[in-house]
Design goal:
By secondary structure, chain A is mainly alpha-helical. In chain A, 71% of the residues lie in helices and 3% in strands. Chain A has a two-stranded antiparallel ribbon. Chain A has a two-stranded antiparallel ribbon with strand order 2-3. Chain B is an alpha/beta fold. The two termini of chain B are 31 Å apart. The chains are: A mainly alpha, B alpha/beta.
Chain lengths: 333, 504
């Protein structure tokens, strides 16, 4: 019964072109949403279409978006880090403490980034070393890290950062391009390459899809996840430097609630909250969309509370849209 | 001469097929009131499929089920339950978070006023039922999760009695029980017999079958090959029925002169799963591991592959001591493992075929850690075409492939790493006949190219058709080793695996 064919059948690499796949992808949908918002904004407010206004708008989201880049990888791998905003608080507090001992700009930056890395390593150790679930670990460290800030600062604030330190959060690299935004573009490219163009990124997808099969395929699952926690810590540390520089002060309540905004960006960007799927393009577009919405509503003098309502509705809408669309299409059949 | 009894349940001409697999072919089964019938057969003989047909989980493609002479259609598990058929599995379907009494009366709890559950009445009745079956030590308000497996079985039996079930199916109920618990279970079965229940008892252990059963029915390859009274037959006869088969299956085994020793395992132990495992494997050899489910074969292999850590023992590869603490290290040392649980451990079903194939060879296809898709497609094409993979494109998700083709992808992944030793754990379990032949053929070809192959299999024809040598394991230990030559009879393997002929 086993007929041995003499010629092997040829299996094509792909059906359809990568282009056709890209047109109907999530990032394309986000791009359309983003363009619509852009047009609506420019019609709604005469102040919107100015390079400097747009540049100002980027400060709203770049720090969160930097964290979202690393968070995207972590969520794709099937883990999550809810302590990122608290890492900012702790890193900023450490910088403030160092300032009291006369640290200069370069030491401050180093301390901010190192604090982020240490916090990330701590999360990573608890999750990968002890095998605890990341959602529980990082809810714990969320309170723990910020708690340290409150103990150090109480209701006080660190102020008086050196003038040269202000560059990171307030300076411009070229014309309207701020240091923050330029850094975000650079990191977006780096993360794009890391996730979509390297072995490491492929392993992240494999782990998120099926971490048992990934382990059974010789992937060092724990090591990959640990690195992802380190990266999230690193990005939080960098965000702490930028934010502290921009505000020129440290309070223990700094960046409160940012963990949810970072997660929102990631999910809005099309990353599966269950892990295993997502793109950096999507996350970048989601960050820009959230920036546009916040800025547009700000120009129309809409209060912050309404903005958060709008962001929440947008999230539900964009996630529901393709699901509802699919249901309608199925019903018609 | 006593008048022959009417069977309580009679199945006749039952067939059931799955895509590519004929699980049951015109089988029959009769269960008599007050008697225990043992269902005997190798793994894959169709026992589980039959149980699922009787409990309403599967619908037979053809055939008839009669209860007390009346034809019935068991369209759902609930219908089977209503018809008085209840099953007790190794992992019985009960609810861990509910109390014992709730589990017993779920769906038919005694009611008080306003349709509320009569808790007091329910607990009292549960207590009576439990006492009746000698399980008075179980309190009705205990949560089920706090009970041992033996006690869970008792709760399941109490549940069966609470609806006055006439037919009780016990599918390997003793697998996780201690000696004492097994004896208690047998006492309980004797009690059920005295109550006139018809009992179907499935076990691989002959001593248990002879202890408890009155009748036997033997299945082989989805067909019924014999039935009768146990006292009229011998163990030899039953074993012969289990394994004797038509010789229509030809295995593509090539004769290979084994090369040098590649792998040597000495004194390999695990605290709970296996002990004192030692064997050697030469290049070009296919070494079969036979045994019952739970004999510890997979555990030994997963330990060799670095998934679980052994407590003692040494592994040598090409004569050098190899320390393997993770699958990554095993792959580096040239040992790869094709797991039995394809969907969970083998394939990353959400990723495309080519990414699955290259997952363990990314170092080879990439440059300085950066992916090169063209190289990945090339490697994936090379191995998937050699395995005769059937797929629309290499970019297709593995989850959309049939089981046999998923298995080919997993094997392709490992061959792409150019291993020294490949361990295949039940490589053809649950895959269609065509893919089975492709896997066997390829396995044979690999061995002839000098790869050392370990094949864990519970299927006798496969193990005898493909192996050069066969190691039999039982209860975590190697019990015998056979050269696969003309003198080897399947009965010898079955006896070794089941432990027959040592005490008896």
């Amino acid at each position: 019964m086993s007929v041995q064919s003499t010629e092997t059948r040829r299996i094509p690499d792909r059906l359809g072109t990568p282009l056709s796949a890209a047109v109907f992808s999530w990032p394309s949908l986000l791009l359309v949403v983003g363009l619509v918002l852009f047009v609506v904004n420019s019609l709604a407010s005469p102040y919107f279409l100015s390079p400097w206004a747009l540049s100002d708008a980027t400060f709203n989201f770049t720090e969160k978006a930097l964290i979202a880049l690393a968070m995207a990888l972590l969520i794709i791998s099937g883990e999550i880090d809810l302590s990122v905003a608290s890492i900012i608080a702790l890193a900023s507090t450490m910088m403030g403490l160092a300032l009291q001992y006369g640290a200069g700009t370069s030491e401050l930056v180093l301390i901010g980034i190192m604090s982020g890395l240490v916090c990330g390593a701590f999360n990573g150790f608890l999750v990968t070393g002890l095998g605890l679930p990341s959602i529980v670990v990082t809810i714990g460290t969320m309170s723990f890290f910020r708690g340290i800030s409150y103990i150090v600062l109480g209701d006080q604030a660190f102020k008086g950062y050196p003038a040269s330190f202000a560059y990171f959060g307030q300076g411009y690299v070229f014309w309207v391009f701020s240091f923050e935004f330029t850094l975000f573009v650079l990191f977006a490219l780096l993360y794009y390459v890391l996730l979509h163009r390297t072995n490491f990124g492929r392993q992240v997808f494999a782990i998120g899809n099926n971490d048992v099969a990934a382990r059974f395929s010789g992937i060092r699952v724990e090591r990959v996840k640990f690195i992802l926690f380190l990266l999230t810590g690193l990005m939080s540390g960098i965000a702490a430097v930028l934010l502290t520089s921009r505000l020129d002060s440290t309070r223990p309540s700094i960046a409160a609630g940012w963990e949810l905004e970072a997660v929102t960006m990631v999910v809005l960007g099309g990353v599966s909250i269950l892990g295993g799927a997502g793109t950096i393009q999507g996350v970048v577009l989601a960050a820009l969309i959230m920036g546009l919405v916040t800025f547009g509503l700000g120009l129309l003098n809409v209060p912050g509370i309404v903005m958060s309502i709008f962001i929440g509705l947008l999230l539900i809408f964009v996630i529901a849209l393709p699901i509802v669309f699919r249901k309608i299409r199925n019903r018609r059949r | 001469m006593i008048i022959p009894k009417e069977p309580k349940v009679e199945l006749s001409g039952i067939s059931k097929s799955f895509p590519g697999v004929r699980a049951l072919h015109k089988v029959g089964l009769r269960l008599y009131p007050g008697e225990v019938t043992a269902l005997i057969g190798e793994n894959g003989a169709g026992k589980s499929t039959l149980v699922k047909t009787m409990t309403g989980i599967y619908q037979p493609d053809e055939g008839e089920i009669r209860i007390s002479g009346k034809p019935v259609v068991l369209s759902s598990p609930h219908a089977a339950f209503q018809a008085g058929i209840t099953a007790i599995h190794q992992e019985t379907v009960l609810f861990d978070e509910l109390s014992v009494a709730e589990n017993i009366f779920l769906g038919h709890a005694p009611r008080a006023a306003f349709g509320l559950i009569d808790w007091r009445g329910m607990n009292a009745r549960a207590r009576t039922l439990l006492a009746e079956i000698g399980a008075g030590h179980i309190a009705p308000d205990t949560k089920l999760k706090d009970l041992s497996i033996a006690n869970k079985h008792l709760v399941a039996v109490a549940r069966a009695l609470s609806v006055n079930a006439e037919v009780v199916i016990m599918d390997e109920p003793t697998a996780a029980l201690s000696y004492k618990e097994i004896q208690d279970l047998f006492d309980l079965i004797d009690f059920l017999k005295s109550q006139g229940k018809a009992i179907l008892f499935i076990s691989h252990k002959f001593d248990e079958i002879y202890r408890i059963a009155d009748r036997y029915t033997v299945f082989r390859d989805g067909e019924m090959v014999g039935e009768g009274l146990l006292k009229d037959t011998s163990q030899q006869e039953i074993v012969r029925m289990m394994v004797g088969r038509s010789v229509d299956q030809v295995f593509p085994k090539k004769q290979v002169t084994p090369g040098d020793e590649v792998l040597k395992v000495v004194g390999y132990c695990h605290p709970t799963e296996f002990a004192d495992i030692g064997f050697s494997l030469r290049a070009g050899e296919i070494l079969g591991f036979y045994g019952l489910v739970g004999a510890g074969r997979s555990e030994v292999m997963q330990s060799l592959f670095g998934i679980t850590k052994p407590s003692k023992g040494a592994v040598r590869i090409d004569g050098e001591v190899a320390v393997i603490r993770s699958p990554a290290q095993a792959v580096d040392k040239g040992i790869v493992y094709v797991p039995e649980d394809r969907g969970k451990q083998g394939a990353v079903t959400g990723l495309p075929i080519f990414q699955n194939v290259t997952l363990a060879s990314l170092k080879k296809t990439s440059r300085h850690g950066f992916l090169r898709l063209a190289e990945e497609f090339k490697l994936a094409r090379e191995y998937t075409e050699r395995l005769d993979l059937r797929a629309a494109s290499l970019d297709q998700n593995v989850g959309n492939l049939s089981g046999g083709n998923q298995q080919k992808v997993v094997i392709a992944k490992w061959l792409a790493t150019k291993p020294r030793v490949i361990i295949l754990d039940e490589p053809t379990k649950g895959i269609d006949i065509g893919s089975k032949a492709a896997v066997h053929e390829f396995m044979s070809e690999l061995a002839s190219q000098g790869l050392a192959v370990i094949m864990v299999s519970s299927e006798l024809p496969e193990i005898m058709g493909m192996s050069d040598r066969i190691i039999v394991m039982r209860e975590g230990r190697i019990v015998s080793e056979f050269e696969n030559n003309a003198g080897l009879k399947p009965e010898m393997l079955v006896r070794a695996a089941a432990g027959i002929g040592e005490a008896a």
